[in-house]
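User: quick one - fold this with flavin mononucleotide bound?
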Amino acid sequence: MQKELSTEFTGLKFVNPFVLASAPPTESKRKILKAFEAGWGGVVTKTIGLHPVENVAGPKTIFQRTSEEKPYVSRNKRADTVSHSSWNWELISDQPLELWLPDLEEIKTTYPDRMLIASIMAGAGSEEEMDNWRKLATACVGVGCDALELNLSCPHMDRKDMGANVANDEDIIRSILQAVTSVVDVPIWVKLTPSTSTLVSAAAAAYEAGASCISLCNTFPSLPLMDPETMKFEVEVDGLVTSGGLGGLAILHQALQRVSDISRAFPDKSISGIGGIKGFREAFNFIVHGAGNLQICTAAMEEKGSGGVGVKLIQELTEDLSEYLQRKGYASIEEFRGAARERIVEHSQVRRKSDDYNGGYAKSA
Ligand SMILES: Cc1cc2nc3c(=O)[nH]c(=O)nc-3n(C[C@H](O)[C@H](O)[C@H](O)COP(=O)(O)O)c2cc1C
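Assistant: Sure. Structure tokens for the protein plus flavin mononucleotide:
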């Protein structure tokens, strides 16, 4: 029998802590309904916005693999490969808000016990953009969304007032949260970019301004690889490419470090962990660093025959977590959440063979 997997996170009841992240698996009503049928505890919708969106005239995502024999990373098909990462330069949803709203309402009515989180995005620096945030928030909550996730982290935006380009600017984070919390009364999750050195201060600003949770990581800004024979990038349009986002196993360790940084700075606050989760072991690692909720994208997209929503993956995740809780005698993930927190220390706090080392500083006499 499955051990009780339900969790309370940001005041919401999840039947299990596994959520499909904002991305192609959650880009349509059809896919979200299929995901809930498969057993996902929640979904964060593909990001919804009000500005014009047109994707590049070519593939938007590639899946990169590596092998034991000549273990280079490539999207090229080779025998006996394993997944390394996804790379994408896909923009936010091109489905307009007006079409999303009836879909969101139907999804929530069909699966009232599953958490439906709308990811939204607008710009910054003007009242007009704050109105856009307010409009998106009010509309999504009005049709029954349980929470909102503010996308402040998309790594490939031309607009300098959006996504990762706002680079965790604390004033912008505060102004957006102020706008959104003034019109809705649901938990607000804030998805920050991992690619700044000011992540902890940005998280502080978000929590102080009313965020219920920090979601991270979004994909890491990165370039696709060039093939030495053809001189082509593995994804390009007319020979051109731009910075896109790396996801999947390749970002796991970096994502964990970001989650740990925030979790140690704010042990009482909520974190939704994202980045490279492929199965229970990766999810476990996010939980011991303090995450109370897990989001998954690349691994679901990679599962063949699942329509990109990870049908087998969610079964495995729930079965493996349940078996682990049972075997260890834990009532829920809360019993081991944050277990690694106090074991992450400054380099100099890790024992040396002698007692003389002072973190690279000369010891005063
Ligand atoms: C093709 C693709 C599209 C994505 N679109 C969005 C998006 O619209 N909004 C967003 O917040 N994150 C988006 N993401 C980022 C994912 O939600 C997630 O943060 C990231 O992929 C890391 O998780 P993973 O390692 O499980 O893939 C996208 C990722 C991919 C691969």
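One thing worth noting: Residues 21-24, 46-47, 61, 86, 88, 90, 92, 119, 151, 154, 191, 218-219, 247-248, 251, 274-277, 296-299 surround flavin mononucleotide (CB under 6 Å).
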